[in-house]
Amino acid sequence: MAKFIQLFKQTFIYGIATVFPRIISVVLLRLHTDKSVISESSEYGTLSLIFTYIVLFNVILSLGMETSFFRFYNKEKNKKNVLNTAAISIIISSILFAALFSIFKFNISDFIGISSSYLSIVVWILVVDVLTVIPFAYLRLKGSAFKYSIVKIINILVYFLLNIFLLIYLKDMANNYKILQSIYIENFEVAYIFIANLIASIVSLLLLAPFYFEINYKANTKLLKRMLAYGFPILISGLAFSINETFDRILLDFLLPASIAKTEIGIYAACYKLAIFMTLFSTAYKLAIEPFFFSEAHKESSKQSYALVLETFVIIGSSILVLVVVSLDILKVIFIGDPEYWQAMYIVPIILLANFCLGIYQNLSVWYKVTDMTKFAAYISSFGAIITLLSNIILIPKYSYLGSAIATLLAYSTMAFLSYFIGKRYYPVPYNISKMLFYVLLSISLSSISFYGFRDNILVGIVCILVMNLVILVMEKRQIIKLFNLIR
Question: What count of other Cβ atoms lies within 10 Å of the Cβ of residue 420?
Fold first, then answer.
């Protein structure tokens, strides 16, 4: 029990480090979509597109080495050897990447249609970020959850505060203080955002710098080959997940006419972020409940417990779906700075439902985690990525970002169905599918009535929220009490 309590505490601390940056990203959405800060939605589209590339290349440059490091550090007798080899592999990959980028910078800029001045900053963000991968992993390995979270939180606070300073105060202060005139450049707002990101990343690296003074810079070539071979499926799985999450922006850029692509991306990306409220719930639930999965695995009643856990997620998620959808027209005013972006609001319920399906998939994934069949995570994620790519390619030319929203829903719902049906074969859990489908369909129906049928009538929305929660209260009173007793 003591170990479980300690694990829960660490999960909570890691959860803060995971959720807090996402909250800050929504807060910054208001600033980044304000016309007085970034005057064109196409520029915000460029910003969103570059961040998509950052996500993808962060996965590629890490080489799946984080998971390999965990595996081999616990497996090999010579721990120092594993530590040195993992760190050096990341250092070499970052140097090679920076060198290749320097050679082909202008070719890359022409191909993706993004200014080389932006890319020059972004490449250093990627290099610095990848150099923190193994130090962060080492902190997790040592159980230093507090230090790990502190560094992550300092990173996002530096990024946030620099955004405020560079985008709001710098211009006026440069007029009053000559020392600041040298760093103020007119119409440089997007670059300032990346500069803020780079400085925040450098701060993180400096805080983790003692790690690089502790290692011995000698790599074991044979061990490195084994670690890379082990990490390759992890790399593919991570890349597939990143494609599902972000690649639609890149496809919008390539498949839409150049004259409108960046504007469409900006409008889509801004509204997409409002779906984060479902993502936050899913992430927090996953972080809190995942240790419970493993603590229950050896018990005879484990499968019944897993069924109850997913049921509870679906019930709460259904309620949140209706609540957020009804509140969208309030949230857009709070978090999106300019009405131009609001034209894509009709896709937000679709993205919310897609993220709900992703949360269901993550809860269903218990079967391959407790049976050590994690290869299925790569299979399912890769299949989802294929659906994402094909659906976007088919739908974007005709439906623009609506096609991307539909593709996201198709990918995540398919992943959930695949996980359920494959799990039935290898580790059958007695999920109450009919009850969960009832709640999902009820929440979809009430959300659709409120948003697509009576969007201007807040009273209808309030009634929909009340109906959803009254149904839950009447049907699930005993189950809620049972869950609380189970966790306690």
Answer: 17
